[in-house]
Specification:
Helix content is about 55%, strand content about 0%. By secondary structure, the chain is mostly helical.
């Protein structure tokens, strides 16, 4: 009897089946055990909203938490599906070296560096502008 009255003292969202929406640690445990597939997010949220309407409860933090955890459940399910669909990675093909002589590469042009005075620079600029 004590258990039955204790469960009635709890807010409705902490009772089954809605408690999974507010127990993120339990959700992580279910993820590891791959039990997330047994969670019907749509049915759970619909019954949760019906209960909220029935009780006329206007506390937006509670439905917000329920939506967050249902989004997490959906993400976990999506990641599991994507992992199943991911193709096995094959090792990259080995690159073979070309047979025969290796072609000679042309050497890059090297520019010679020299000293330049400001007078030489100004003369060169004047010559260019005079054209």
């Amino acid at each position: 009897m004590k258990e039955a009255s204790g469960s009635l003292d709890k807010p409705f969202w902490l009772r089954e089946p809605w408690s999974i929406l507010f127990d993120l640690e339990g959700l992580e445990k279910k993820e590891k055990e791959r039990e997330v597939w047994s969670i019907d997010i749509r049915g759970l949220l619909e019954s949760f909203l019906e209960e909220l309407r029935r009780l006329s409860s206007i506390n937006f933090s509670i439905p917000g938490m329920a939506l967050l955890s249902s989004a997490i459940i959906h993400r976990i399910k999506s990641e599991l599906v994507l992992r199943l669909e991911e193709p096995l990675k094959s090792p990259p093909p080995e690159k073979s070296l070309p047979e025969g002589p290796i072609p000679i590469l042309p050497l890059p042009i090297r520019y010679e560096y020299g000293t330049l005075t400001i007078d030489d620079l100004l003369k060169a600029i004047r010559d260019i502008l005079a054209l």
